[in-house]
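Margin note: ligand = flavin-adenine dinucleotide.
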Amino acid sequence: MANKMKKALDSEEWKITIVDQFKTHYYQPGFLFIPFDIYSKQDVIKPKYDFFPSGIEVIFSEIDKVVADDNKVLLMDGKQLAYDFLIIATGTQTYPEETPGLKDKLWYKDIFDFYTIEGAVALQKHLKYWEGGKLVMCISELPYKCPVAPIEFVCLAEAFFAQKGIRDKVDITYVTPMSGAFTKPVASKMLGDLLEDKNIKVIPDFYLERVDNENKKIISYDEKEIDFDLLTIVPVNLGNEMIERSGLGDDMNFVPTHKETMQSLSHENIFVLGDAANLPTSKAGSVAHFAAEILFENLMSAMEGRPLMAKFDGHANCYIETGYGKGALIDFNYDTEPLPGTFPLPGIGPFGLLKNTKINHYGKILFRWIYWHILLRGKEMPIEAHMTMAGKQRV
Ligand SMILES: Cc1cc2nc3c(=O)[nH]c(=O)nc-3n(C[C@H](O)[C@H](O)[C@H](O)COP(=O)(O)OP(=O)(O)OC[C@H]3O[C@@H](n4cnc5c(N)ncnc54)[C@H](O)[C@@H]3O)c2cc1C
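Resulting structure:
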């Protein structure tokens, strides 16, 4: 957004300030590949400075809170920033401490997340010498960012163990609070069948309550128990505590946001982008990218006192790595579930929607380059912000 706005605004009239607590940017989709030695830590990090346009103010500091009624952002060091317009893009973070027993004595010994760089690297070291047993991949709670990442994880794990020659020694179970492998029926069936083909057991409707470290079990609210030797977990995802301190969030610290305009529901001069918003679509980088195009138009309108005409449709587009050099692709929005077909060109593709193909895998691998060189730099992609039905087959 800073890159887009800097180009569009008259610097005599507008000043852009970006505040972030960390100087390093992580390519989070790359965390998935680290446990399997496909990427290293160096492949997923770059300094944020590399992506900021010149002529904006950059402040590296944790935000204490937003005092929205006074149009002020308070930093942890006591500094105050006044604003005319504010974009909140503080994302979602994982909170393993929310689940009793999760961050206990087995944490980073037999229990790992891969949603943080620390977790992904610790798991990489652990898998190097793991000799097999019961691998359980469990999703703690909804919503969580990148809903397909745990499916990708078990697929990559399956291929990794097969390659190591220990597949017959590993029992892989996918445990989810959803009623199937994925939220939407057509994709859930395709992904469920894929996991079945790979001999990965799916346990649906499991609402994790606690972890028993002594007996190595996960236990649900209705007292179902699952044994593990190695537990990989998507911990509870919440919005940043800053949102709570500011009184701007719902009960999970996500900011109530107009699902089409990206405007905060409580303050007209606050807009929300990415995982921080409570939009009824996936929390994903692709969603943040498409929403940014809508936000750009609406923010320009708000600054010029015009009505907000651009409307976001909840468009999400996610490559799903499935192992053995293959991948699937889903493209959907608020109203249309992932459907089979070709993308982006009808009948031509080259990518196959809800199909397991090599070319989709190349799409996933190419995505990292696109991320660093196009998305973060606020450049245009040759893909519409709005989802299109072209190439999709109704089922
Ligand atoms: C394992 C994994 C795989 C994924 N795979 C994909 C994928 O294949 N495709 C896809 O589209 N998406 C994927 N995602 C999701 C994607 O990474 C996120 O949806 C995306 O990064 C969201 O962007 P964001 O800007 O909203 O939040 P973030 O990228 O999380 O950025 C939030 C920023 O806010 C800053 N911040 C937060 N609180 C404060 C504070 N109080 N003070 C100052 N700064 C603060 C943080 O430092 C951070 O820089 C994946 C995520 C993970 C973890």
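The chain has a mean pLDDT of 97.
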